[in-house]
Write a structure and sequence with these properties.
The chain has 14 helices and 18 strands. The protein is α+β, with helices and mostly antiparallel strands. The protein has two domains: 198 residues, Heat Shock Protein 90 (2-Layer Sandwich); 154 residues, Ribosomal Protein S5, domain 2. Strands 1, 2, 5, 6, 7, 8, 9, 10 and 11 form a nine-stranded mixed β-sheet that branches. Strands 12-13-16-14-15 form a five-stranded mixed β-sheet, with helices on both faces. The protein has a two-stranded antiparallel ribbon with strand order 3-4. Helix 1 runs antiparallel to helix 2 and helix 10 packs parallel to helix 12. It is elongated, with a radius of gyration of 27 Å. The N terminus is likely disordered. The structure holds 3-[3-(1H-pyrrolo[2,3-b]pyridin-5-yl)phenyl]propanoic acid.
Length: 440
């Protein structure tokens, strides 16, 4: 091994004099060993920096990081099924029928690609520079973080008609990558089984419900992929598969409501960015808009959501004006009453901001989404006047209700001002501005 390494370094140096420079950080055996271990100990020292927290939420992130690798393999077109099994003994398994992590020796790092993926921060799908990692955990840190925060982890790879296995503890390999059996050469995939480190996490029990709801979301966002979850503790099982993608998502969200029209859906690509949205109004008053960036639920919104809302408001007002349906201006809130929508964007370099890193920050996205929605929804309304009218009347109704509510509020306030002096005993105390004098 050591000899090979030296030869390889020499030939690299001969071919490319600049390689000398990177020799110490990437290709020298000792240096890269230290680099990997430094990465892992950084994760163990400050786990929250990598998975958000060390509570129940962080615990489940370990699973999402593993699942995201399988989803990426599915998005690349090589995997159709992902399975999660919660075991009785605290272990959890994530498996897929993808190509299997490559088992050959990574030329620069002189170790198997399996080991690199499992131990190197950010090593995830970066092998192939042409395809960017689309799905990504909270911070897209990769499965090595799951490994670093696990007391034990076993990876099995089915590839080339063999089953390869390597075991780790606290992220460090404790065995070589070893062939443990044969398999039909057509059968390929990756199986990762791990036990979270109870010294790191304040909670170590996986929740079937929490995992199910995220896996269902992932199945909606990655149409055609089958995602299964099984709980050996309770024998509960779920299987998620949606050929309709986010159209199915919207219909799922509206399942207990009365929809006013068939779901509107568009999917557009521009400059390596893919944006899709699905929307359907129901006869209720709630706004139910979910936004995702690279399959991450952007609870705090961001530029994609702003672009979508801005365009939606403009398109509806333009249509209303153009068709002389009503003289009044519809506010963005009027337009989102009874609206159920899912928007999903996939971009090469997402910037996540905000308190929980769930706000998309990329500034160029706002205009791009705005223009896609403006054009596609604008034409859709022109081509589907019946649906357009249904939606616009719903929005006008909301505007009337808003104005009526505003008037009622003003009236109540005026009355309230007149009555203020006559509040009885205890309640009157509550109107005191100085908290020291207030006993409620
Ligand atoms: C690196 C390169 C390739 C696949 C993967 C990683 C991979 C990683 C994981 C983790 C869980 N499941 C996975 N499936 C695939 C490309 C493989 C090739 O070129 O054959």
């Amino acid at each position: 091994m050591e000899n090979n390494q030296t030869k390889m370094e020499q030939s690299q140096t001969q071919q490319n004099p600049q390689a000398q420079e990177s020799k110490t950080d990437e290709s020298s055996y000792d240096a890269k060993d230290i680099q990997v271990l430094a990465g892992l100990s950084a994760v163990r020292k400050r786990p929250a920096m990598y998975i958000g927290s060390t509570d129940i939420k962080g615990l489940h992130h370990l699973v999402y990081e593993a699942v995201d690798n399988s989803i990426d393999e599915a998005l690349a077109g090589f995997c159709s099924k992902v399975c999660v099994i919660i075991h009785n003994d605290g272990f959890i398994t994530v498996s897929d029928n993808g190509r299997g992590i490559p088992v050959d020796i990574h030329p620069k790092l002189n170790r198997s690609a399996v080991e690199v993926v499992m131990t190197k921060l950010h090593a995830g799908g970066k092998f192939d520079k042409k395809v960017y990692k689309v799905s990504g955990g909270l911070h897209g840190v990769g499965i090595s973080v799951t490994n670093a925060l696990s007391k034990e982890l076993v990876v099995d790879v089915k590839r080339n008609g063999k089953i390869y296995q390597q075991k780790y503890q606290y992220g460090k390999p404790v065995t070589e990558l070893t062939i443990i059996g044969d398999v039909d050469p057509k059968e390929t995939g990756t199986i990762v089984k791990f036990l979270p480190d109870e010294q790191i996490f304040s909670a170590t029990e996986f929740s079937f419900e929490i995992l199910s709801s995220r896996l269902r979301e992932l199945a909606f966002l990655n149409k055609g992929v089958t995602i299964e979850i099984e709980d050996e503790r309770t024998e509960k099982k779920n299987e998620f598969h949606y050929d309709g993608g986010i159209i199915s998502f919207v219909e799922y969200l509206n399942k207990n409501k009365t929809p006013l029209h068939k779901t509107i859906y568009f999917n557009k690509g521009k400059n390596g960015i893919q944006f899709e949205y699905a929307l359907q109004y129901n006869d209720g008053y709630q706004e139910n808009v979910f936004s995702f960036a690279n399959t991450i639920n952007t609870y705090e919104g961001g530029t994609h959501l702003i672009g979508f809302k801005t365009a939606l408001t403009r398109v509806m007002n333009n249509y209303t004006e153009k068709n002389k349906l009503k003289g009044m201006k519809l506010t963005s809130e009027d337009i989102r009453e009874g609206l159920t929508a899912v928007i999903s964007i996939k971009i090469p370099e997402p910037q996540f901001e905000g308190q929980t890193k769930t706000k998309l920050g990329n500034s160029e996205i706002k205009g791009l989404v705005d223009s896609i929605v403006n054009d596609s929804l604008g034409s859709y309304l022109e081509e589907n006047p019946q649906i357009a009218k249904t939606i616009v009347y719903k929005c006008i109704n909301a505007a009337h209700a808003r104005e009526a509510a505003q008037k009622a509020r003003e009236l109540t306030r005026r009355k309230g001002a007149l009555n203020h002096g006559s509040l009885p005993g205890k309640l009157a105390d509550c109107s005191e501005k100085d908290p020291a004098k207030c006993d409620c």
